[in-house]
Amino acid sequence: DLHRILEVLERKMGGKKLSLKAREKLFTLSGDQTRLVTSLCDRISEDKRSAGANIAYLLAIALILLS
Questions:
Q1: CB 33, CB 67: distance < 8 Å
Q2: Disulfide engineering: 33 pairs with which of 25, 29, 40, 52, CB 3.0-4.6 Å?
Q3: What tens digit of pLDDT does each residue of 47-63 get?
């Protein structure tokens, strides 16, 4: 799941890599948080250009950075 999350978020960022701090935080998420971010990333993958996908992206990044 974590590698899928990284792939989706980095693709959404135009191929840029997540910062080291964000990567480290991603690997410290609880199981519930990981499932939530995975669900948000599924939403991003389904419709990359919709408002819902953009909101899901922002929520996923916020959850990772604020955890």
A1: yes
A2: 29
A3: 878 999 999 999 999 99
